[in-house]
Amino acid sequence: MAKGNSHDFTSKRHNSSFHWTRKVGSDENDDVSSTHNPLPDHNNSKPASKHTPSSSSSSSSSNVITQKRKLQSFAVSRLRSVIATLSRARPGHHHSGLGSRVVGTLFGSRRGHVHFSIQKDPNSPPAFLIELATPISGLVKEMASGLVRIALECDKGKEEDEGEEKNKTLRHGGGDKTKTTTATAAISRRLVEEPMWRTYCNGKKCGFATRRECGEKEKKVLKALEMVSMGAGVLPETEDTGGDGGGDVMYMRAKFERIVGSRDSEAFYMMNPDSNGAPELSIYLLRI
């Protein structure tokens, strides 16, 4: 009886192992068949999800990067257009980029008026050249008596006032923003480009000063002074100094410190070689 039970138990174990072997083998065969089948089963296969979390995050990040690149390229193009507009509005003034140290020259014939020029260096063309109504002899007397303060004042034009009002309106969110370029061009004139100035010397009104283009006579004087970095003297009246019968040319050249207060105010202080005491000559430009 015991032998019959053990035989049945053994046969059951054999049958169970046989079925497990068949099952594993069938699974392996299914995997192999699914691997070697190049075509998917349209009846049994489930549709894959269209969006996964990783793909959605990567697509959103790529969209953000693309938008940033578009904004950067748009900003660069706008900046280039503004620079091009300003350069067209002010042709011929590529030399007007002055620094904090400039070369200032006062010159004029003995029987003529004072000319004052500002240059970036002795070899560069003048960025600012005016003719004062003051005779050169009168300025020499003033400088011999002590410190000299020359104030040059000009008025804001009507277009400049209107342009500033438009810019204020645009900054506060009002008005037509398409007129920004027009308003900017109306006030784009630099202070050293003003044509007419009222002149005050040590508080006394001395007529008017006029902006001049650098003509042949002025070019010859500045050419003769290229080797002079600082000092005062007299140039004999010759063809090289543009002599026109007004006598010898008196000059004074020095380095000036340029201080910009705003777009409507600048100051030039003559730098003393010993760096002691107040500057002997100061020139102020004011647009009021």
From TrEMBL:
Pfam families recorded: DUF617
Basic and acidic residues compositional bias, start-end: 1-11, 157-179
Record region (Disordered): 1-66, 157-180
Top-level taxon: Eukaryota
InterPro entries with a match to the protein in the record: MIZ1-like_pln
Leader sequence residues: none
Bias (Basic residues) ranges: 12-22
PANTHER family: PROTEIN MIZU-KUSSEI 1
Name of the molecule in the record: Protein MIZU-KUSSEI 1-like
Gene label: LOC104770661
